[in-house]
Amino acid sequence: MTIVYQDDAIQPENRDAIKKIKDSGAFERMADRLTKAVALPHDLLVVITDKLPNGIDDPTTELDGRRIFWPAAFLKQTYDALTEFLPEVVRDKGAPTAIAQESFTADVLNVWGNQFILGHELGHAVIHQLELPLTGLEEDFADGFATFFTVNDKDTGPNAALAAAVLFDAMGSKRPNLTLEDFSSDHAVILQRATTSSAPPSAAIRSVSPHSSPTATSQSPAPCCAARNGRSSTMAGGRSSSRISPRATRRRPRRYAGRLA
Q: For residues 31 and 231, what is the distance between their CA atoms, to the nearest angstrom?
């Protein structure tokens, strides 16, 4: 697995967020662990750039599982969402006990949260390269892989999953009213994702948001769009693939067919 930063194709306003990811070594650490842990039949390339194929505006895995496109602008968007959200949390409820207070910053949580999102995309890549049969929704399997793979990272432990919960909460809090589009894919709605991605310590994270309500996070909706409900559309979308299939595919109505997110 290889991480490629296309520096010449990254817009100036996104370079600081990219530098923080680079300096953390989180993506490279994930790549090294996956290479050692899973014998993929093909190389997996993660391309971080602002020069993207038409229709891609968030992390997206190709159907053959051999390449992940990662918009540099996405890292800036998640950083901005956290920068706006965290002061509201501290003011209204205080930092959650599940995360060290000195780590409850946009800089740290953006790295950890995007590490989890990379784990999600790696889950899709593993499913498709190995042609794994699924007995449920592919998005749930990808989230499960992200949680398992990041929790077992000796450098971050559960922090990546917890940070992802805060990140999803930050994005979901700006879009509290769900629409039909939010329920149009095989992901959980984003505020529900804020709870499930942090299980079992979800209660500690659930108390983070000054906006979330029990009905927004605890209902079990029909298959729907995950980390990306809105510009909140942070993680993916597509139609249900809840069937046993060695080549489960996901297609987003808002994207051209043939790519995953």
A: 27
Within-domain flag for 95: yes
Q: What pLDDT does residue 94 have?
A: 84
Q: What is the DSSP letter of 105?
A: S
Q: What is the DSSP letter of 181?
A: G
Residue of 192, 167, 190, 176 whose CA lies nearest to 236: 190
Q: Is residue 50 part of a domain?
A: no
**What is the token pair recorded at 102?**
């000195």
How many structural domains compose the chain?
1
Q: In this predicted structure, what is the pLDDT of residue 96?
A: 84
- CA 158 to chain centroid, in Å, comes to 15
pLDDT tier at 178, thresholds 50, 70, 90 = low
Token pair of 28, please?
């490279």
Burial (CB < 10 A; 0-12, 13-18, 19+), residue 85, is: buried
- Decide if 230 is inside a domain: no
Kindly state whether residue 118 falls inside one of the protein's structural domains.
Answer: yes
Q: Which residues constitute the domain of residue 169? A: 74-218
pLDDT at residue 156 is higher than 60:
yes
pTM of the complete model? 0.73
Please tell me the distance from the alpha carbon of residue 34 to that of residue 51, in angstroms, as a whole number.
26
More confident residue, 59 or 94: 59
For residues 238-247, b (16+ Cβ closer than 10 Å) or e, as one string?
bebbbeeeee
pLDDT one-digit tens code per residue, 179-231: 655 555 555 545 554 445 444 444 334 444 444 433 333 333 222 223 333 33
Question: 119: which 2 tokens?
Answer: 């784990």
